[in-house]
């Protein structure tokens, strides 16, 4: 009897399947923030799990094993083809005065690939990641002398997704390190890499839609309620450019001319170029009557179709990172970066009354420690990487003259998978986020606790992702 051949899942097949899956899940609701009903929704950084633990840094953050999904130049520093993905779970608590509401949301975060030849200096990147999210359900009870008490409820969902295709290349600088004897004579020399400069760019297509509704429910049954439903379809396309410069600051060698410790300094920048954005908005006004059987639509007043076209601003990020590798195998990394975007130049035509665009600024900082190298570690605690990060963002939207401000603390952990000869790893990050808009008429405060689980996979020979080690 002829035995059927097993089905082989190749790398392109896996990439296509994961891409289709994430395209369906990236638009899933991942926030309950009332502030997400304004503008393009709550903007997302697009950072992966490893970057999220370092304050979502991306300008100068590079890693030989983890893909930088913010700076298109970062992929040039990878040692081989890399896949990154993950999912998140968030618990959000929203407070307004004495009122408190909370809920849980979650979903996939991104899918990202970097195709790179082992030892090569050029990488091709592609993937999908969230650009913004909208998800809110808030109500406000007011009193009118004619209609008495009535409730205004706002509901919305959806978001924007970004697909991209990029290219990165790295150049290396080398020098000869001389070794001398006690008399000052040259005894040996070693050629070492002293610097690396990478540049990259990617084409990005942003797409997606948001559903918004506003309902007025009047307690007195003799009055007719009103519902306004809005459907928005968003599109834009443009380029993001990036660079990273890595410089060897200091290096120490043992008596056998082997490198035992080093210090590296990196600087980098990300420039998301301005681009034309189109918002097709369809709005429908209708009247409803609340009966014993439930709400019943009694009249559709009218519908409108509007097109808003405006130019998104240049978003710029600059950063620096220092890395120290000790003689005992420990690795310390710390960095800081600064971001800005001039949103104030946009027209407020598409925004609600009392809401305007405002310039956005932000800072991030991060620190990580790997106690021991893979060859020296005697347990998971030694070979794992522990990270602490902070991110602050202010601006983008101004509500009643109060700018939206957000602060996020992150704590991360990354563990190489021993069962993989390709160097794959599991990443986990816990985040604590606080958001508010001080000076507004209604002081809404948000606190969110999130958990992000990510993984980095490197394909091995014959498309084997995870292969157990064998010892003779």
What does this entry look like structurally?
The chain has 472 residues and is mostly beta strands. It has one domain: Outer membrane protein transport protein (OMPP1/FadL/TodX) (Porin). Helices cover 5% and strands 63% of the residues. It is built from three helices and 17 strands. It has a 14-stranded antiparallel beta barrel. β6 (186-218) and β7 form a beta hairpin. The two termini are 36 Å apart.
Helix content: under 10%
How many domains? The number is: 1
Describe the largest sheet: 14 strands, antiparallel, barrel
What is the spatial order of strands in the main beta sheet?
Answer: 2-3-4-5-6-7-8-11-12-13-14-15-16-17
What is the overall number of helices?
3
From the 3D coordinates, which CATH architecture would you assign? Answer: Beta Barrel
pLDDT under 50 segments (min length 5)? 1-27, 461-472
The CATH topology name reads: Porin
Overall mean pLDDT: 83
Topology:
Blueprint: H1 11-25, E1 42-43, H2 49-52, E2 82-96, E3 99-116, E4 122-144, E5 148-180, E6 186-218, E7 225-253, E8 259-272, E9 275-291, E10 294-312, E11 315-325, E12 331-341, E13 355-370, H3 380-383, E14 385-399, E15 402-416, E16 425-436, E17 444-457
Antiparallel strand pairs: 1-4, 2-3, 2-17, 3-4, 4-5, 5-6, 6-7, 7-8, 7-9, 8-11, 9-10, 11-12, 12-13, 13-14, 14-15, 15-16, 16-17
Provide the descriptors you would attach to this structure in a database record.
disordered N terminus; Porin; mainly beta; 472 residues; 14-stranded antiparallel beta barrel; single chain
Task: Describe, in short, the structure shown.
It is built from 3 helices and 17 strands.
